[in-house]
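Reproducibility note. Readers wishing to regenerate the assembly model reported in the main text can use the exact inputs given here. Chain order matters: entities are listed in the order in which they were concatenated for prediction.
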Amino acid sequence: MTALAKNLADIGYMDTLAAGNSPLHRLDPRAKLFTTFLFIVAVVSFGKYEISALVPFFLYPVFLIGFGELPAGYLARKILVVAPFAFLVGVFNPLLDRQILFQLGPLGVSGGWVSFFSILTRFALTVSAALALLSLTGMNSICEALARAGFPRAFVVQLLFLNRYLFVLTGEAERLSRARALRSSGRTAMGFKVFAQIVGRLLLRTLDRAERVYRAMLCRGFDGNIPIVEFSRIGSRDILFVSAWSVLFALFRFFNVSLILGEAATGLLK
Amino acid sequence: MSHHIVEADKLHYSYPDGTAALSGVSFLIAQGESVALVGENGAGKSTLLQHFTGCLFPSAGVLKVGGLVAEKKNLSALRRAVGMVFQNPDDQLFMPTVFEDVAFGLRSLGVAGAELEEKVTGALEVVGAAHLRSLPPYRLSQGEKRAAAIAGVLAMSPDVLVMDEPTSSLDPLSRRRLMNLLKTFKHTKIIATHDLDFALELCERTIVIHKGVVTADGPTREVFSDDGLLKRSSLERPASLLHGR
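Running the prediction on these inputs yields the following structure tokens for the assembly.
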């Protein structure tokens, strides 16, 4: 199995997790989606030098993972896989922003380093919450929740199909690249020319397949709408979940809880 | 009203690049008949199948299914009447889970709630795939995918079942299971296949297509015993008919 195929099998595992039966799994997908959306908005709305105020927000992903009985190690590995992106976004900040913000003993900490760590913290927060949401809800329910929330239907259908055909596409890519490897007498590097041809081939196959899939859909009465999952009504537990977390997020957003707790702790020590 | 459920009268079809795929195909199929459609690669079988579901329309000639002329204005009724099972089940299973996939066509028709549940479960039970209902299609074996795809079509209770190479890439046991399953169906069946033993066992009648025209149409056993015809159509006697020579 190639690294790519392994990673995708892992994504499939998230849908398996979503079939779980914890109280969090049973919450209405809309409630979870909306709360996670609020969470992400709150987290990214902080100033670029903020770190300490972000820390309390870890409560939310930890809560989801803990009470949703999700495998934390697995999710942590998933976060690490995408971490290089966040790293690249922030890695030049220490070079560009050298103004010393505060002294840590003899060490002057520049604004660049602070904003870099702020980016990494936000990344860990948002991605862990999103992955936990996915593992608790499943792609299908998320898509339906998005559709109900008024997202354009075309967008939601695209997302569903991405989830479905990702596996078929990688299967095809894997077969193509294996066919190449078997006949290239041990040369491991693909070379740009062959790579371009394989990608081109893949595109053509994908277009063909898209046409066949579309025909299959038409044959069964597709009219532009994909009816997905039927939801039950929003219950009191859903409302409680959304409102309790909204209040907490507001609290974390407008008061620096870490600072207050820290000051209280040092006050007690005095 | 004729008692024929499928009527093809001098069907012609050319692809936009000018390739003539059908050049005057005519046949009549009665209710409940099981017909094999055989012919070499590129003979025009798949093109013909696409006409049944209104994915292509004839350039000339008329195709009628259940009294409906295959044309744009009858499209949705035509697609209700014809259940098409694609060659590659991955093309057909586009919904996230087996249950959702089988439910897709029904939901498009406005079926919901308990009735939906009942119909989907029923169709899955018929093909022996009830235990697969909550699985995503990429977790299924080829045989299971085929069963799920057939359930999706059965759930719509079509009048005519059209299948494109149903036994391709199935292991012998899955193939046997599929054959036993199809034997229990009372639908009118039109099956395009290269699996002549399959055709011999399942279809009392065979239509041979060669270069876009019908070169033979008759009882399967007779057609498959005509060596000259088989050779001209790039076919060969099925193994089970070799002893009889």
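We highlight two features of this model. The mean pLDDT of chain B is 90. The first strand of chain B starts at residue 4 and ends at 14.
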